[in-house]
Design a protein that fits this description.
Layout (H helix, E strand, L loop, with lengths): L7 H16 L37 E2 L9 E7 L2 E8 L5 E7 L6 E5 L6 E6 L12 E2 L5 E4 L4 E9 L5 E10 L10 E6 L5 E5 L3 E6 L4 E6 L11 E3 L2 E5 L3 E7 L5 E8 L20 E3 L7 E5 L7 E6 L5 E6 L13 E3 L2 E5 L27 E6 L6 E7 L5 E2 L1 E3 L4 E7 L14 E7 L6 E9 L8 E6 L3 E5 L3 E7 L1
Parallel strand pairs: 1-28, 27-32
Antiparallel strand pairs: 2-34, 3-4, 4-5, 5-6, 7-8, 8-9, 9-10, 11-12, 12-13, 13-14, 15-16, 16-17, 17-18, 19-20, 20-21, 21-22, 23-24, 24-25, 25-26, 28-29, 29-30, 30-31, 32-33, 33-34
Length: 482
C-alpha cells in the first residue's frame, strides 16, 4: 500500500475536526414513526441486511438499531479491496463482496461477526466494473451473484471438520444464452415466486429459475443502459435505465412484461460524482400502506436534479421536487424510502478513482464535493410532495435509516483544509448519526485519516447487536459500542 505523509496544516485541521467530533454528544432522538418498510421477500435474507440497499425493495432502511449511546470503537479490516457489498444472513455471519485493488477479481469474504476478520474467501470470475457489486443473500444465507462468465451462482458457507470455514458454489446456472457476449449483469434480486430477476448494462432484463433452468428475457429500447441494480416488490420489478424508469411483471412462463414506463430528464451529460449519464438511483419502493405504494428515483436534470415519485400500480407521477439545489446537484445514490418520507444524498463532485467505460465524460470535468442531504415527504392524501429540509452534510457513503433507533447512519468526509470543499488523499472520515426530523448531526465518531478509510459512496450495513460494517476502498471498518 502507498504511504502518506501529513503536512502540519493537515494535522491541525484533522485535530480540529477530531475535537469537534468528540464534542458532539451521543444521540438522544425520539424515534419517528415512518410506517412500514417494503414487504419481506420470502426468497431473500433478513430485512435490512439481505441486499446492498437493505431489502429487495431497496429502501435503504433497516428495522435494526445502530450502536447505542456511549463510547464507540472502530476497527479497520484491511482486505486490500474495495468492499461495496456487506450482507448479513440469519446466522449472523457477514458476507462481503469485494474487488481487490490490483487484480480486480471479485472476491467473497466470510467475516467473523465478533471481529470482522476474514474467515474464508472465494474468487469469482471477473466481469465489468459494476459486475460483482450488486448481489443479495437468499433465504438460506447464500450469496447470489452473477460472475464474469455470465453464470448465476449461489455461494454458501460452512464450517469444515478441522474447524475452519469455507465458501463454495452450491448451485450454478449459465445465463450465457440470455446475456449477449460483451454484456454483463449489473443487478439482480428475487421476486415473490423465487425467480431471480436480472438486468444487464446493455439493457436486457430477464428472469432465471435455477431449479428448472428456465431463463426468459426482454430487451429494453436500444441505447438505454442499466447502470444500477433493480428492485422487487409484490407489485413488480422496478428498473431504471439511463433514460426511463420501468415497472415489469412476469408472464406465465416468466417472461418480463412491461407494466409502465416513465421517461425522465437525463440532462445533457454525466455530472461529476456520478458513474453514468442518467439517474444514479436504484429504484426505491416505499409507502405508508404496504411499504411499496410508491417507487422513486432521482433524475439527472441540469442544473438541479429532481426527486421523482410514481405510484407503483399505475406509474402515475405523484410529484417532481427539485432537490440539492443549494450545492452541486447530483446523486449516484439510491434514495432512502420509509413510510411517506424520502431522503436523498448528494454525490456531486465525489472523486471516484474509476468510472465505467460506458460513462462518458462529465460536465464539468470535475468539481468540489460540497455534499448535501435532503428530506421530501409525500403528502398524506398522495396528491404531491413537500421539501422538509436540506443540509450540506458531506456524506461519503450511502446513508441508512434505522426505524428502530430513529436515526440516519452514514460516514462523513472531512477536509484537510478548514472551510474548503476540496478533497484530498488525506481527508479524515467520521461515522455520523443524523436526526431525520431536522437533518442535524447528533453524533460523530472519528474513524481514520487518508484514502485507507475512503468509503467511496458505498453502503454501510447495520448488523444485529448494533454493529455497523462499512465498506471502504481498502476493506471494511467495523463500528460498535464498547
Amino acid at each position: 500500500m502507498p504511504s502518506f505523509r501529513l503536512s502540519r496544516a493537515g494535522v491541525l485541521a484533522a485535530a480540529g475536526s477530531l475535537l469537534l467530533a468528540a464534542s458532539l454528544s451521543p444521540a438522544h432522538a425520539t424515534a419517528e414513526s415512518f410506517g412500514p418498510l417494503p414487504p419481506h421477500n420470502p426468497y431473500a435474507g433478513p430485512d435490512g441486511t439481505a441486499t446492498m440497499h437493505g431489502d429487495t425493495g431497496s429502501s435503504d432502511a433497516t428495522p435494526l438499531p445502530g450502536p447505542g449511546a456511549g463510547p464507540l470503537t472502530s476497527k479497520r479490516i484491511a482486505l486490500q479491496s474495495a468492499c461495496p457489498t456487506i450482507l448479513v444472513g440469519a446466522d449472523g455471519y457477514p458476507v462481503a463482496l469485494c474487488t481487490p485493488i490490483f487484480t480486480r477479481v471479485p472476491t467473497a469474504h466470510l467475516l467473523d461477526p465478533a471481529t470482522g476478520a476474514s474467515l474464508a474467501q472465494l474468487s469469482i470470475a471477473k466481469g465489468s466494473l459494476l459486475g460483482g457489486v450488486y448481489a443479495y443473500l437468499d433465504h438460506r444465507d447464500r450469496l447470489v451473484v452473477v460472475d464474469g462468465d455470465r453464470s448465476l451462482l449461489r455461494i454458501a458457507h460452512r464450517r469444515k471438520a478441522d474447524g475452519t470455514w469455507e465458501l463454495y458454489v452450491d448451485r450454478s446456472l449459465s445465463l450465457a444464452g440470455a446475456v449477449p457476449e460483451g454484456d454483463a449483469v449489473t443487478g439482480l434480486a428475487p421476486d415473490w415466486q423465487g425467480r431471480v430477476w436480472f438486468a444487464t448494462g446493455g439493457g436486457v432484463v430477464g428472469t432465471a429459475d435455477d431449479t428448472t433452468g428456465a431463463v426468459r428475457t426482454l430487451a429494453l429500447p436500444e441505447g438505454e443502459r442499466v447502470e444500477n441494480s433493480l428492485s422487487t416488490s409484490p407489485a413488480g420489478t422496478a428498473v431504471a435505465t439511463t433514460h426511463a424508469t420501468y415497472l415489469l411483471t412476469a408472464g406465465a412462463d416468466g417472461t418480463p412484461v412491461l407494466s409502465w414506463r416513465r421517461a425522465y430528464d437525463r440532462g445533457a451529460a454525466r455530472k461529476p460524482g456520478q458513474l453514468s449519464h442518467g439517474t444514479g438511483s436504484t429504484p426505491t419502493f416505499f409507502g405508508p400502506g404496504d411499504g411499496s405504494d410508491y417507487v422513486t428515483v432521482v433524475d439527472n436534470a441540469s442544473p438541479t436534479v429532481s426527486l421523482l415519485v410514481y405510484r407503483s400500480d399505475t406509474g402515475a407521477q405523484v410529484c417532481s421536487v427539485p432537490v440539492l439545489a443549494s450545492n452541486g446537484s447530483g446523486s449516484e445514490n439510491s434514495p432512502i424510502g420509509a413510510g411517506r418520507s424520502v431522503f436523498v444524498a448528494s454525490t456531486y463532485g465525489y472523486p471516484y478513482p474509476a468510472v465505467p467505460e460506458s460513462a462518458g465524460p462529465s460536465v464539468p470535468a470535475s468539481a468540489d464535493f460540497t455534499g448535501g442531504l435532503t428530506r421530501v415527504d409525500v403528502r398524506a392524501d398522495g396528491g404531491g410532495c413537500d421539501l422538509r429540509w436540506e443540509t450540506s452534510v458531506r456524506s461519503s457513503a450511502v446513508p441508512r435509516l434505522s426505524t428502530a433507533d430513529g436515526l440516519i447512519h452514514t460516514v462523513v468526509r472531512g477536509s484537510t483544509v478548514s472551510g474548503s470543499d476540496a478533497t484530498s488523499l488525506l481527508d479524515p472520515y467520521y461515522y455520523t448519526q443524523i436526526d431525520p426530523g431536522t437533518g442535524a448531526v447528533t453524533r460523530s465518531q472519528y474513524l481514520g485519516l487518508s484514502s485507507l478509510y475512503d468509503t467511496l459512496q458505498m453502503v454501510g450495513s447495520i448488523a444485529p447487536g448494533g454493529v455497523v460494517y462499512q465498506g471502504t476502498i481498502t476493506g471494511v471498518v467495523r463500528i460498535a459500542a464498547r
